[in-house]
Design a protein that fits this description.
Blueprint: H1 8-13, E1 19-22, E2 28-31, H2 33-39, H3 43-46, H4 51-56, H5 70-77, E3 81-88, E4 94-105, E5 111-121, H6 138-151, E6 157-160, H7 167-176, E7 185-189, H8 195-203, E8 204-205, E9 217-218, H9 220-223, E10 228-232, H10 239-251, E11 253-254, E12 263-264, E13 268-273, H11 277-282, H12 288-294, E14 297-300, H13 311-326, E15 331-332, H14 334-340, H15 348-361, E16 367-368, H16 370-387, H17 393-401, H18 411-425, H19 430-437, H20 441-450
Parallel strand pairs: 6-13, 6-14, 7-10, 10-13, 15-16
Antiparallel strand pairs: 1-2, 1-5, 3-4, 4-5, 8-9, 11-12
Helix pairs in contact: 6-7, 13-15, 14-16, 15-16, 19-20
Length: about 450
């Protein structure tokens, strides 16, 4: 039988997802309509140019800078290869993707690479309180890949990670990429609900269920019907509440407090914890049967110190809400970004956001340089030392006053004053203040309590 010749453009157009055909010399030979639409580049503009220029804004192949690249493996071995990558659209906006490279043979025996691109998140990903998940490092992309896969399932998800790693953002990402995306996403903060309030808040209560319950209350479980219920810091739940949660997860049925009617709700559960939850199981502090129920799909969010290369794109993204809240455009110098990469961030992304906020308040002209960053980091280091020492208020004030660029009672004083000003600006609308700060309302409530601003 004579070999069949297939036009490369027709082959690319046969795919619904973005698809590009590349030769041994990295030149783009064809892209399909999905690629054009996703990355904002036309076939005429792309054909003939290097793939690393079109997809990555690079001047050299990706593997030369240490990045994963399927090109070399495919042309050396001739086998399908897959990796996680970052692509850029025509407006230089970043998209996290999974790339799968397939070997294609021409009728003349020439080897080509057909690259199928599955988007994990794009530049238009919805922000939550001004925040979104940003990164390009291998640990971050692997985590995004996991979340994209579990989003398609219906089973419960357990997100594990240190404080400040973005577990609530991850829960939002899973919900917004699931079939439940058009339905409610509700949050339960397990650290603030007392045992008596848990049932009423989660399951609701009937009229007269307890003193002061004049009317009926619809619980969060019922409100989230068809959607997702996010249980933040689930490891903090007392054992008595764990038993009640297990019951509804096993049966899908519950009763309002003081009610007799058995109700049903179709809710997907996403849980988060900063604990090693299995250690809590071993210590008898967390039910083993509940653990297996909520940890059907488990994802660990990497700490920021494990993905320091992300800071060069993460920090400018975090500065956006800071600029908005302070009505001034801020940007980091290259030296400032390099200094930020040398810190270990025990508070993770949340701490980086706070560092940038404090640095912005001490930067004139909108440029944040490495001198300001160094001063803020030194202030944080001294603050941590004071937490482990018995020092007088006077000595702490003297220490702070002696630091260049820092006055008053230090970083907390600056933050408290800024939050107080935003409360006045937004007429005590806490939702608007949280959005201006780029934090969740729950985080804002904790700060209000800490600074006695209630």
């Amino acid at each position: 039988m004579a070999p069949v010749s297939i036009d490369l453009q027709s082959l690319a157009d046969s795919h619904e997802q973005p698809f590009v055909i590349i030769d041994r010399d990295y030149r783009v030979l064809a892209i399909n309509a999905a690629y054009e639409k996703t990355f904002g580049v036309s076939n005429d503009d792309a054909v003939g140019l290097p793939c690393y220029k079109i997809s990555h804004n690079n001047d050299a192949p990706c593997h030369e800078s240490g990045e994963d690249c399927p090109h070399a493996n495919l042309f050396e071995i001739g086998k399908t290869d897959s990796c996680l990558h970052v692509h850029f659209d025509a407006d230089h906006r970043m998209c996290q993707v999974r790339v799968t490279a397939h070997p294609l043979r021409g009728s003349n025996g020439e080897l080509y690479m057909g690259e199928l691109i599955q988007q994990l998140s794009g530049p238009d990903e919805r922000r939550i309180n001004g925040r979104r998940m940003v990164g390009k490092s291998t640990p971050f992309l692997a985590c995004m890949d996991q979340m994209k896969m579990v989003a398609a399932a219906q089973a419960p998800v357990l997100l594990q990670g240190e404080t400040g790693t973005g577990k609530e953002l991850a829960a939002h990402f899973i919900h917004s990429n699931s079939m439940r995306r058009e339905q409610p996403f509700l949050t339960v903060d397990c650290t603030v609900l007392t045992e008596s309030l848990f049932e009423a808040e989660v399951f609701g209560h009937a009229r007269g269920a307890f003193t002061g319950s004049v009317g009926e209350r619809t619980g969060l479980f019922e409100q989230a019907d068809g959607g997702t219920l996010f249980l933040d810091e689930v490891g903090e739940l007392p054992l008595s509440q764990q038993a009640k949660l297990l019951r509804v997860l096993e049966t899908g049925q519950y009763r309002r407090v003081g009610g007799k009617k058995t109700r049903n709700a179709d809710v997907r559960i996403v849980c988060a914890t900063n604990r090693h939850l299995w250690e809590s199981v071993s210590a008898g502090q967390f039910r083993e049967d509940l653990y297996y129920r909520i940890a059907c799909l488990s994802i660990r969010l990497p700490a920021l110190r494990e993905r320091l290369d992300d800071i060069e794109i993460l920090a400018p993204d975090l500065l956006g809400p800071v600029s908005q809240s302070m009505n001034q455009k801020f940007k980091l110098t290259l030296a400032a970004i390099e200094r930020l990469k040398l810190y270990d961030y025990p508070g993770n992304v949340r701490e980086l956001r706070n560092i940038l906020f404090i640095a912005a308040t001490h930067s004139s002209g909108g440029d944040i340089d490495n001198v300001v960053i160094e001063t803020v980091l030194q202030q944080l280091a001294h603050g941590r030392q004071h937490q482990h020492q018995e020092a007088t208020v006077e000595s702490r004030q003297a220490e702070t006053a002696s630091r260049p660029g820092m006055t008053g009672n230090g970083l907390h004083d600056v933050e408290a004053k800024h939050i107080s000003a935003l409360l006045q600006q937004h007429h005590d609308n806490r939702k608007q203040v949280a959005a201006a700060l780029g934090i969740s309302e729950r985080t804002l409530y904790r700060k209000l309590k800490r600074y006695n601003l209630n």
